[in-house]
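Why should sequence recovery work at all? Because a backbone constrains its sequence more than one might expect. Tight turns favour small or flexible residues, buried strands favour hydrophobic ones, and helices have their own preferences. The token representation captures these environments compactly. In the example below, the structure is given first.
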């Protein structure tokens, strides 16, 4: 059971003003399989944030906000993983995307992590396998530089900032094939710490911080109804990591199976956005802490999609949401 404080926090979401941007993504089109569209989701549901579309369509890329700069890098291109980056300064009007120094190594399905003023491009994939490199942006020389490496083969994980100088790497395909591995990388002393493994191995899943703990959801995993089945399928299971006890605990399943979807705490509420389950999705569901069930939002994204970037914007769009 989750704490009373968490239940109370979920009841006040409607008077808060946090929002996320839903950027780009993969759509159901053979000729044009990705989009440059940007929309917002906040206290009153979906809204138009007034942010210009990406300079080009993109999917499986990384995006993050460092101070008031939005940075988008990498992605899946026709000729392989992308190095290209763009930036948008939220303090400069009219808002416009501009070129940003490109990554040293092209990659898609990467983690874009912000720790203070530092931004990292964490792992990822190419057409020949996983990318082990971790790049850090050097603001003084205004370029990306090789910083460190992920330990061994690792793809389709999710990554989150932890404290002021660490990165949590959750699940994903690795050399063991179990997709349960969880680790903590310290960017100060470049050390790795092993965390308790996921209860259910998963890849192309999503994770987020929620009330001081980590929640992992969805992704590709084993068929829980038939463990002897050697194949995998999209799942709707959710589990929460207690950072004090170093334990994972299962909570209520989402309504939809989802892979490559948006997942964030928005105004104190766990929120799952769109994704893929065999078909592209446009639905949004939120976890009701009072009833401990997932509930669909009445609104839908304007386009069914997956493999987009989700960037938490705090209260930046508070005057536009409702």
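From this structural description, the recovered sequence reads:
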């Amino acid at each position: 059971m989750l704490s009373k404080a968490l239940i109370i926090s979920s009841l006040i979401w409607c008077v808060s003003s946090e929002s996320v941007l839903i950027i780009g993504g993969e759509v159901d089109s053979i000729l044009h399989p990705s989009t440059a569209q940007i929309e917002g989701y906040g206290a009153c549901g979906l809204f138009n944030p007034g942010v210009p579309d990406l300079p080009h369509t993109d999917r499986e890329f990384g995006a993050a906000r460092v101070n008031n700069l939005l940075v988008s890098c990498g992605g899946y291109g026709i000729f392989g993983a992308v190095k290209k980056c763009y930036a948008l300064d939220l303090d400069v009007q009219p808002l416009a995307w501009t070129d940003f120094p490109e990554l040293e190594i092209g990659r898609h399905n990467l983690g874009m992590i912000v720790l203070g003023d530092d931004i990292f491009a964490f792992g990822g994939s190419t057409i020949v396998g996983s990318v082990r490199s971790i790049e850090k942006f050097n603001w003084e020389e205004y370029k990306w530089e090789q910083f460190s490496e992920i330990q061994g083969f690792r793809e389709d994980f999710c990554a989150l900032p932890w404290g002021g100088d660490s990165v949590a790497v959750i699940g994903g395909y690795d050399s063991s094939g179990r997709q349960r591995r969880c680790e903590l990388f310290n960017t100060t002393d470049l050390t790795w710490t092993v965390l308790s493994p996921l209860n259910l191995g998963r890849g192309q899943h999503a994770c987020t911080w929620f009330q001081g703990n980590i929640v992992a959801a969805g992704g590709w995993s084993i068929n829980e109804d038939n463990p002897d089945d050697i194949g995998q399928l999209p799942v709707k299971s959710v589990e929460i990591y207690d950072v004090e006890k170093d334990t994972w605990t299962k909570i209520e399943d989402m309504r939809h199976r989802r892979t490559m979807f948006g997942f964030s705490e928005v105004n104190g509420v766990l929120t799952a956005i769109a994704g893929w389950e065999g078909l592209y999705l446009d639905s949004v569901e939120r976890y009701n802490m009072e009833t401990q069930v997932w509930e669909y939002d009445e609104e839908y994204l304007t386009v069914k999609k997956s493999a987009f970037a989700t960037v938490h914007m705090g209260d930046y769009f508070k005057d536009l949401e409702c």
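A few observations help interpret the result. Residues 1-15 have pLDDT under 50 and may be disordered.
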